[in-house]
Design goal:
The structure is a homodimer. The longest helix of chain A has 16 residues. Chain A is an alpha/beta fold. The N and C termini of chain A lie far apart (61 Å). The first copy, chain A, has nine helices and 22 strands. In chain A, the strands form seven sheets. In chain A, strands 6-13-7-8-9 form a five-stranded parallel β-sheet. At the A-B interface, helix 5, strand 18 and helix 7 of A face helix 5, strand 18, strand 19 and helix 7 of B.
Chain lengths: 375, 375
């Protein structure tokens, strides 16, 4: 069954029975839009060939696995080097011989600043993945209905499997057509309780816009943790209770082989767009005391308001035990802390867990020095 | 060289040359007391025998290792089941056959609440360490000048090595004798800039009292991370700069084999002593998504002010990736957050790092439910 139309004035939805090819009109008291996101598929020649997979649902994953069992691909190309693209490249590396990632931007993971993205690029290449940046896919080559390669601006890459990791967009079409307010970020506008602009119509999850507490803008961020919270909040409110969504601060974490990548708040580019005047600080440290077995590298970058020293954003690239350190930074950011106060916070120390100054504190200290120098 | 006396009126110190057995009186403009802490040694029969080791300095560790190489002890007894005691028991387990830990209290790690201490006790026993709680050491047995066993209230434990892990106390004797204010916690009173009550006399490190931001009391907490910060702050101020120590919130972390134990804020007992009316919440979760390889157990307990829902304390016992989660809780506590606000915070999620609701959020949610139920 699929909803094909919403009539706000009549408070009805048109439901199509996909098997019986029949439509019925159903009334609603309360309507929750949980239409999620849809993967972006490039409108390129050959894009409909066999062997080209988008990855969003569990079914997508199952289809991809069956294809791999059957076709035994040896050369995979992943289009897009965001979180999903790079994570898929890791998975392909285990199952195919050669993996190439093609990314239009100058760096993988454009949710990081270029300098931190460059660290990821280097690490991804060291894993044996061929990463081609600033390269645009123009077409897919097809033989006997099955993909056989990728044509880019600068050449040709043979491939018997293509995975698309070029992101998703909020699925707000039905809402937009019905006249429910859709914001410029492409997602459905919601208030704190997850109410849309239309009476008795609620939205939650990837289709709903999220309030970003640092930029003060509504953004589309398709992450399971936000979707899960919003679903719970909408449910409590629809059920007659009271709960509000406080918004997000842009936290995300990802793992590629043993590389951990995390961020929170705003990047430099986002700071500029928002109008923040900022300074940055980047430090290299270790996840445990330097002498302790298993100590691994961690690089932390902080972005801080120039005048106040207030934390605006943080990015981490490192090995095991690096990524989750973003949570202390996200909590500090949530509370609008300044790096002056942060650098002497009481974070946990013991040699298996941190150097005597945790990398988070070292980064805050350096950022505070940079603030003082800049003012 | 050793300072044997401070004369505040004359602004001099008496310095004894330990080799030459000579004393000189030296004037000072500025005096920094960094006398650290001294291990508590029990005044018990046999306590001076060979084979009994306190562990505080690097030299202590070296002496212990040499003794073990030479005497090849097979039965070790650790007195005291605090962080150091339990960590030493782990080290002994690798090198001796049998390890017994004797603790006077009903549980190991009395810096945790009894219910969380019980989890540690069970895990320690599963490691093959014999843990005897509510048992008081009364004497050490000695044969030919070397320790041969421990006599407790309830019996006799043969041992050829004893490690004392019964804690340290602030070394404030010199300060007290000179008339520098020493607080009821046993450590030297200092202000935000690490100045003592005496003019031009500063103190930093284990000998100096720390302001606890939750209890609003001065406490003696001998941890390297505090000492390191205080040394830096005293140095900046003595050098003519300006820096203040914001205090601590009682954060600590420890690792015993693969068990991770962490705490921040106040325990239930400390809450009662401070006068806080509170509720608690304890949750069991996993460090990664349940289906993700390497997901391990984590138990989190929160202590929350009954009326406001303000976080007062947190304790974690778990396996790998559990302990460092205390930092997000310490940061929330530092900012006097309520669990109502905390439970929807934007902490990082991806399957290798957390379930879709991080255990910290689940714990905050449960605590908030308990607050609502209790009011």
């Amino acid at each position: 069954h699929e909803v094909t139309e919403i009539d706000l004035a009549a408070a009805t939805v048109t439901v199509r029975d996909l098997d019986a090819r029949r439509e019925t009109v159903e009334p609603y008291d309360t309507l929750l839009l949980a239409t999620g996101a849809v993967p972006i598929r490039p409108r390129l020649p050959g894009a409909e060939a066999d062997g080209i997979f988008g990855i969003q649902t569990l079914d997508d994953g199952t289809r991809l696995l069956s294809y791999m069992d059957e076709a035994k691909p040896r050369r995979a190309v992943v289009v897009g080097a965001g979180y999903i693209g790079v994570e898929m490249a890791e998975a392909m590396l285990e199952r195919c011989g050669e993996v190439t990632v093609v990314e239009r931007a100058p760096q993988p993971m454009t949710t990081l600043d270029p300098d931190m993205g460059a660290v990821v690029a280097k690490a991804v290449r060291q894993m044996g993945i061929e990463l081609r940046t600033e390269e645009k896919v123009e077409a897919f080559e097809v033989q006997d209905g099955r993909v056989s390669g990728v044509v880019t601006e600068s050449g040709h890459i043979p491939a018997d499997l293509i995975v698309l990791g070029i992101g998703v967009r909020a699925n707000a079409q039905l809402a937009a057509e019905a006249g429910v307010q859709v914001l410029s970020c492409g997602a459905i506008g919601v208030d704190r309780r997850m109410r849309t602009s239309a009476e008795n119509v609620w939205a939650a999850g990837d289709c709903a816009a999220k309030y970003h507490r640092v930029s003060r803008e509504f953004v589309a961020v398709p992450l399971g943790t936000h979707a899960n919270k919003e679903g719970r909040i909408a449910g409590i409110n629809i059920g007659g209770g009271y709960e509000t969504f406080p918004g997000i601060v842009g936290t995300a974490v990802s793992k590629v082989c043993d590389l951990e990548v995390a961020r929170t708040g705003l990047t430099e580019k986002e700071c500029r767009a928002t109008g923040f005047d900022y300074v940055t600080a980047t430090v290299d440290s270790t996840t445990r005391a330097g002498y302790f077995p298993g100590a691994s590298k961690i690089r932390i970058k902080l972005i801080v308001e120039r005048r106040s020293g207030r934390l605006l954003g943080a990015q981490i690239v490192g090995r095991e035990h690096a990524g989750k350190r973003i949570d202390a930074l996200a909590t500090a950011l949530w509370n609008e802390m300044s790096v002056d106060e942060m650098h002497l916070m009481d974070l946990s120390y013991a040699p298996p867990f941190a150097p005597v100054w945790d990398p988070v504190l070292i980064a805050a200290r350096k950022a505070w020095e940079n603030v003082q120098r800049a003012t």
